[in-house]
Amino acid sequence: MTDDKLLVLTEKQIQQKIQRIAHEIYENHYQEKELVIVGIKNRGLIMAERLKELIDSISEINTTLFGIELHKDKPTTNPIVFSGDLASLKNKAVIVVDDVLNSGRTLIHVVKFLLDYPLKSMKTVVLVDRFHRKFPVRADIVGLTLSTNMKEHVSVDFTKPEAVYLQ
Predict the structure, then answer these.
(1) Is there a contact between 81 and 61 (Cβ–Cβ < 8 Å)?
(2) 120 has pLDDT over 80
(3) In whole angstroms, what is the distance from residue 39 CA to residue 115 CA?
(4) What residues are paired with 154 via a beta bridge?
(5) What mean pLDDT is predicted for residues 112-130?
(6) Who's near 49: CB < 8 A, 6+ residues apart?
(7) Using CB atoms within 10 A of its CB, is residue 30 exposed (0-12), middle (13-18) or buried (19+)?
(8) Measured between alpha carbons, how far is 59 from 76 in angstroms, rounded to an integer?
């Protein structure tokens, strides 16, 4: 990995992508009365908070936001922490949100954890998909698909000014 940063998305572009994603979620779930949004801590939760606000502003769907946290390097040896009552997911449409999909490890562990509960449906959302799968998982809704090599790193910065960089 080099110290050089290549700007991939500006703050305005990030906002546009998140807005488009919110509309796509609404289009796919407009008949739902309730939608549960689960953000993977930390940046996935920030993005999930924004999506909730946007969906609330464009629809009548009742949305609930939860966070989920796992040790990304050792997800099987450390417990997954869910910020709410897992029973509240029963028969609900769930949207799982993360910032970057790389190998798929984080997303597949979160999806597996949530599938232990009787959900109505589940969709996955990421801002950037790097397309380097090691696990059979994909994002249903993607802001940007980015071709990279394995040595490069994608970083999402939600502090002002927001940006997505490739290093």
Answers:
(1) no
(2) yes
(3) 16
(4) 166
(5) 96
(6) 39, 65
(7) exposed
(8) 37
Where residue 75 falls among pLDDT bands split at 50, 70, 90? confident
CA triple 111-32-28, angle to 5 deg: 65
Instruction: Give me the pLDDT at residue 16, please.
Output: 98
Q: What is the C-alpha separation between 59 and 27, in angstroms, rounded?
A: 10
Fold that domain 6-166 belongs to in CATH: Rossmann fold (3.40.50)
What mean pLDDT, rounded, does the chain reach?
94
Q: How far apart are CA 118 and CA 38, in angstroms?
A: 15
Query: With contact defined as beta carbons under 8 Å apart, do 39 and 66 qualify?
Result: yes
Q: Tell me whether strands 34-40 and 154-157 are parallel, antiparallel or unpaired.
A: unpaired
Q: What is the mean pLDDT of residues 117-142?
A: 92
If we measure between CA atoms, which residue out of 44, 23, 37 comes closest to residue 158?
44
Q: Residue 86: CB partners within 8 Å, gap ≥ 6?
A: 117
Q: Is the pLDDT of residue 1 over 50?
A: no
Q: Specify the DSSP element, H or E, that contains 63.
A: strand 62-69
Longest dimension (CA), the chain: 47
Strand partners, 163: 157
What residues have CB less than 8 Å from 22, skipping those under 6 apart?
50, 51, 54, 55, 58
